[in-house]
Amino acid sequence: MSLTSDVGGSVNEQLIRGGLLLVERGPQASLSVRNIAEVAGRSTMCVYTHYRGRTSLLFAMHDEVMNEVRAGLSMAADPGAELRRWCEEHPDRLLWLLTGYHDDELRERSAAAGREICDLLGGGDFAEQQLATAVGSLVLRSLHTGVGTTTTQRKQEA
């Protein structure tokens, strides 16, 4: 599966999108430089030309997802409802954003993302409850759709 040039955008954008396509396959997908480059239709060396390495690319991907969340929540009349909607639409991205799929290099960023989302929801216990509700609904949904079901598969089944 390759994005190739028909997707457009800068090489950096193509690499980020390629990585996020892998994220949407779920935690079992390997976010290696080789896999990300392959999905983006680029060479492995291309990653090192545009980023300092895997960690730098993962940080750029993490920033992209957090920017999506920020944009959605900051413009929403009801940020809690918007978060739930975004979670339904991008469950794997949210789980990766908050857990980094247990990648040590993303641990601090994932924790900071959770804190920032709570702040965007207004802070305090209620914001934490809203985030927990959104994540909890993802867990329940995965029990019904099957663990390891990709975002693409879920969309096709809907």
Describe it for me?
By secondary structure, this protein is an all-alpha fold. The protein has two domains: 5-50, Arc Repressor Mutant, subunit A; 59-146, no CATH class. 72% of the residues lie in helices and 0% in strands. The protein has nine helices and no strands. Helix 4 (54-75) runs parallel beside helix 7 (107-120) and helix 5 (79-89) runs parallel beside helix 8 (124-145). The longest helix is centred in the middle third of the chain and has 22 residues, at 54-75. The protein is globular, with a radius of gyration of 16 Å. The two termini are 22 Å apart. The relative contact order is 0.12. The mean pLDDT is 84.
Summarize the entry for a quick read:
GO terms for molecular function: DNA binding. With 158 residues, this protein is mainly alpha-helical. It has helices spanning 11-23, 33-40, 44-50, 54-75, 79-89, 91-99, 107-120, 124-145, 151-157.
Largest sheet: none
Mean pLDDT equals: 84
Beta content: under 5%
Structural class: mainly alpha
List keywords for this structure.
158 residues; mainly alpha; 72% helix; Arc Repressor Mutant, subunit A; single chain; globular; 2 domains
Produce the secondary structure layout:
Layout: H1 11-23, H2 33-40, H3 44-50, H4 54-75, H5 79-89, H6 91-99, H7 107-120, H8 124-145, H9 151-157
Helix pairs in contact: 1-2, 1-4, 4-5, 4-7, 5-6, 5-8, 6-7, 7-8
